[in-house]
Amino acid sequence: MLKLRANDMANIMGKNLRISRKGKETRARREMQEARIYKIKFDKNKISNEKLQKIKRLFLEGKWFTNYMMAKGINELVSYKDYKIRKVEVKVKDAFENRELNILSSQMKEYLITRLQSNTKTIQTLNKSGHKTGKMNYIKALHSIPLMQYNNTYYVNKKRKIVRVQGLGDFKAIGLNQMPDNSELTAADLIERNGDYFIHITAYIAKEEKVHNKKAIGIDFGIKNQAAFSNGIKVQYAIPVSERIKSLSKAFSRAEYNEETKASSKRRQKLRNKMNKEFEHQNQQKIDINNKIAHYITTNYQYVAYQNDCIHAWEKLYGRRIYQTAIGGLRDAFERKANTPTEVGRFVKTTGVCMNCGKVSKLNLSDRVFECPFCKYVSDRDVASAHIIMTKGLSLWNIGETLAEDHASTSSMLRYMNNIPHVKASISKEARSPKQADAAEAPPVRTG
Ligand SMILES: [Zn+2]
Prior knowledge:
It contains eleven helices and 17 strands. The protein is of the alpha+beta class. The site of zinc ion (ZN) has 8 residues, from loops.
């Protein structure tokens, strides 16, 4: 008897040692990695009817379980047997009925509880600090199920384009190849949105090496050119509201709903789902464009300077145009990705400053081309601003003198930008800075 116990102890100690060693190894590895969330969609056309009923049932069981836990009170330590519970009471009108939990696994229950507990804690903290928050209410639907352990609650086969979910089986998935081959998958969430199913996977991937080439670029954001760069390249893009959204919203406004109960008809709900999907698709297009532009710039330039423009204020003036570009996302992407992002203050004057002699003159809003009255240097309005932004940015970092010459050919940047769907890139016909001009490509500098 005693011998067995000693044996057990040795096993447990061995296990703890293994876990702590593993923890150290993981921490060391994480330093070389960064976390990304990949949003993978299940191909709904390839889900059998039987499986579709099962996945719907899973979300239903998740809702029942969540409401059951909330009724029990989530504050105290939740007893272990709740993780294992297979039957819950559900309130139907005024009576309670029993419901079986057939698909929701113990692990899913465990992490639904953890999530509820952390939500409760957040609300309590907010309340204590005087924020007004609503009470946690019973939920009408659950839209996300935690899948905590890779290889246990879910599994991915990139080659076969399959995601396997515990208790549900395999799903054909779209977009798995966004994940690099060496990514390390961790927790995920199974998501239901507008009748579609997704899995959001947190993966650790090798950190991208940031550039150390001492090259700098300035960017001017705008309404006409979404971005003008100090090297003379101007980029325009817009995703106009699609015809499909227009026709859907027409149909939506005509679809009936009950004036008294405010209840939507089935058709109206369906139309709303379709509209949401289309909006999401369009938003994703804008995000992709911003990320691609930012990727090129931040992998080719160490110093990226832009102005802290008040893009929110632009929205009021040029609402639709700003909406179509999601230009704020572009600035955020530069800030996130650049080795050394530099923000030039909002009130620093960047228009009407000559990029050749540095003197300031008045520039009308409608002037797209800027001719300096002092030195007669001609430049594109936005490119000149981008150039000033770059110079101001560099002075903020005090690195002006050690800067590397930008010999990178503008033609490769032009080609890259023009290959992004919906993006039109051009090089300003007016002169660029004489210092930066790339003789083979730049038009000769006009000087009066
Ligand atoms: Zn000048």
